[in-house]
Specification:
By secondary structure, the protein is of the alpha+beta class. It has helices at residues 5-26, 64-74, 87-90, 107-115, 120-130, 134-147, 170-181, 184-190, 213-216, 257-272; strands at 37-42, 48-52, 82-84, 104-106, 194-198, 204-208, 220-228, 232-241, 244-253.
Length: 280
């Protein structure tokens, strides 16, 4: 190698190293999370910003209710339509909206009841109102899953009770959340902290959103929690600020850890998603 070429090569190598080092130094650290599966996506484009075993299938718990609500909305059922809660719907335990058999309320209130306190009873009441029976409603859920190309998702219940064969993934739930949040009614409901519902007979229900991130960050605007023995503690959350929209999903966590994981994932998403809104 000539004396002239050698310094040029060394200079080029040095500049390349400095550029790479500068880029690495400016990149945010990966989020320290305990959840075994997680994903962060740009809500506008669907682009993946972070992923951790995003295609591992597991029970989705009450995140299923995102699809339940989406199917009800896509069926164009009037939100002021009155629905009488059946004995079957009222019989469900776990997380409930405390509905009683024979109680009548609007579809809108049942959506709040399914999505805020994660009412298993409200989810079943909605399914029974939207289809002749639960089997047909679940079929509609799976049809919609195919439309959204949720390749690793299969539904068997409208409320997320652990059932063998009912599965989803972090990636699929992020796609589902993007689709559901495009509905203004859905987005409005899941961003609500408290809701008071009145039945036709005057009975009042006071519901609190289970998504604790709504209280810790004004940018957070949804979407759904879920917990069962098979699924563990799960969280799908969304946040918007400065023209950016980030969706995170973390599955199989425990207790409060899903919220600390969710907060860390959202922070990471905003840190790495630097594309201005005009480029989307």
């Amino acid at each position: 190698m000539s004396d002239l070429v050698r310094p040029c090569c060394l200079l080029l190598a040095l500049l390349t190293f400095l550029a790479t080092a500068g880029e690495a130094a400016s990149s945010p650290a990966l989020p320290p999370i305990s959840a075994p599966e997680a994903i962060v996506v740009d809500g506008w484009t669907g682009g993946v910003l972070y992923q951790k075993s995003p295609d591992v299938m597991r029970e989705p718990a009450s995140t299923v209710k995102i699809m339940t609500a989406l199917v009800v909305l896509r069926r164009r059922i009037p939100l002021n339509r009155l629905v009488t809660v059946s004995p079957l719907a009222a019989s469900y335990g776990g997380s409930t909206a405390a509905l009683s058999a024979g109680e009548t309320m609007t579809v809108r209130n049942l959506l709040y009841g399914a999505l805020l306190p994660s009412g298993n009873d409200a989810a079943v009441a909605l399914a029974q109102a939207a289809a002749p029976n639960l089997g047909i409603f679940v079929s509609l859920m799976n049809v919609q899953a195919r439309r959204l190309h949720l390749a690793h998702t299969h539904f068997l219940t409208p409320n997320g009770f652990d059932t063998w064969g009912q599965v989803s993934t972090a990636r699929d739930l992020a796609v589902l959340a993007r689709a559901a949040m495009s509905w203004r009614v859905f987005a409005q409901i899941v961003s609500t902290k408290f809701w008071t519902a009145r039945s036709v007979d005057g009975r009042l229900h006071y519901w609190t959103n289970r998504n604790q991130l709504l209280w810790g960050n004004s940018a957070v605007n949804g979407v759904k929690t879920g917990t069962t023995a098979g699924a563990g503690a799960c969280l799908v959350s969304s946040a918007q600020k400065s023209g950016k929209w980030i969706i995170e999903v973390n599955l199989g966590s425990s207790g409060f850890a899903r919220f600390s994981d969710g907060a860390a994932l959202l922070r990471y998403g905003f840190a790495v998603d630097s594309a201005p809104p005009s480029t989307r």
